[in-house]
Fold these 3 entries.
Entry 1:
Amino acid sequence: MNSSLEIVKGNINTEIKRVNMPFLKMFILGAMAGMFIAGGAAASNVAMHSLANVGIARTVGGLIFGVGLMMIVFIGGELFTGDCLLIFGLMNRKYRIWSVIRVLMTVWFSNFVGAFVVAALVFFSGQWDYSSDLLGAFTIKVALGKSTMSFGAAFSSGIMCNIFVCGAVLMAAAAKDVAGKIPAIVFPILAFVVSGYEHCVANMYYIPAGILAKLDQKYVDAAMENYGITSEQLDSLCWKNFFVDSSIPVTLGNMVGGMLFVGVLLYLVHRRELEKEGE
């Protein structure tokens, strides 16, 4: 297993290549990552939708959700939350802040494109008809809950989420084989899903999926019947709430969680060795 210092050094080397990556390649990898995370989110909804016990439902969903990050680690992809670890190379003066901004903006947008494509494909696949339209109703319920959080709650939840996600990325880097990387990814991701924390890229599936599900009256009827959702509540499930009320605080929270609570603190632990080596 690689040491903590070796992980940070390896991450910095990877980040140098990332900031110099051509736009098109980065966009494609970002779209792939959005698709992988959305695929895991969609599958976890299927597993959870008919389970009444919240703890059991989130545990089952969390075990499945991690497949998205595994696909990114093993196949390839640029994920916004993981790319918050660009802070390592920035603090080590390997590149400038404008390079970090360019990467994060490109990856965020391409993650959204990939996630939305999956949401649309799932909508047209008819998957949400499962359990007499209950899955479609559950999709609306999940989206509504995520799009109507207060700024403070969404921001704080985003911080907590990316502590676990960046932890999973670094733990996967610590392992030297697939057998070690799988649990390194699964358990931190399971912890954040069970805890109900907010991941901006996962929400790029969950909320647009709910907006699409709202277009089908049978899912709306099932949501009203099974969850007591009202017409007034459904009105708040919209693109404005996704982009402004949800994405802004969750994205900012994810950045603080990954950059400050993981990246900056871990860099400071190894600062002397890293800066001595860079001299």
Entry 2:
Amino acid sequence: MIDTDVALLIAVFGSHDNGKIEGRTRIQKEICLLKFQSEIPFTFNYKSYYYGPYSEDLSETINTLVGVKLLKETMVSVGYNSYRYVYSLTEQGKKLSDKLFATKEPLIAKIKREIEKLEIIGTPELVLLAKAKSGMESTAKSSCVTRNQNE
């Protein structure tokens, strides 16, 4: 039996074009919005962090999925000493995603619909939405938060 959070997370990736999400901040905010706004039953705990809500549990789960080869992590340089992490489904991950979508489970279909809405929103706007929907602000003053939001 697959863990519910893992299954839902694989469905999120499978709902994206090419099974790919660019940026750790984007992943954090999408899952936060799916949990708090769309009522997808993720069990990840969130706390206030640099860009609003952050889940260490989610970060650890992503790392585990990379470790078991369901996700691939690619580090892309976006400037001097600045990187963006891109996560994409591996072939194994795509097969699992296809199985989840083949179940015709209403929750999986809902994730697909919600991701279609989120995909057209830029990451900075997702950060603001996640803060508003979760009630969690950034831990740093906005003038100090100048790091790359796509890390």
Entry 3:
Amino acid sequence: MRTSSLATYRCPETGAALTLDPGAQTDGDTVVTGRLSGGARPYEIVDRLPNFAPDETLKGTAKFARDYYATIADTYDENVHITFDLYGEEEQDIRTRMIDLLDLKPDARVLEVSAGTGKDSVLISERLGDRAETWLIDISPEMLGQARDRLAGNRVPAELAVGNASALPFADNSFDALYCFAGVGHFPDQRAGLAEMARVVRPGGRVVFAEKNVPPWLADTTYGRILVNNNPMFADPAPLALIPVSARDVGIRWINGNVHYVVDYMVGDGEPVGNFDLDLPGHRGGSFNTRFYGKLEGVTPETKEMFHKAAAASGKSLHNWLDEVVRDAAKHDLGPPDGRKGGSEE
């Protein structure tokens, strides 16, 4: 961990800023061992890796992922090619196509979630300049150890941390881009994890995430059933309903044998905004807002028929005719604004 990274790190449970306890062992700008305080609990730094997901905080799929990858970290790279060979795909081509969607600028600050052994981290860094930064987070310290070795000597600075994707230890708007390949299926809380992705990327930045999934049109094929039989995660639905409301220009495609979805989007600011007061042409008239907020109690079928005929005879839209009639009737019944009844004075 670099001491300069403190400005970006936050307690994943409270969002509070963190401080490095006195007595930390450092090597220049690198913290070798130490402790971060100021949040819900202290977070240990061991062998240059801050651990924002202590064992006692893990459960379900997160605990499974940590335990599983601890046993295969040393051999993971020897077998990962099967993920692509199985479908007759070129691993480099698939990884490149996904990273293309980040639309990286040379000085980008990129976060890779579920970074694993850093195979994609190398490809990402090759697109960046000397002023850029790469940040890697993974639930498994063993996998990050492999990534650190792979990135040793890389000209683009890399900051690595152990953490839970459903509670990222970073300040809002910290990154220009975020990438996650084959991690979403192990998120302990997918809704929280996808929301966290958008939270830590600045508006205008890009998010790309991918995971295995047999799409609906292949679910009942022999091809699809074989894959699900081998790994039930292939039956997990693509989490389209969990994409945050701030997502803009969302794209989704299935690649790598047509059984890995890839979602990409630009981060916006809150919900989209529409000009819902725009006057709508045609027989109905009105606007999106009047149709949504201006609903009235129902009338009899006979009254509705008369309403349509009267509006047509007047040459007005249904909205304009009804709005004028209701407004005039309400003014009559309510009287003048000062409460005096209308009529002549004597």
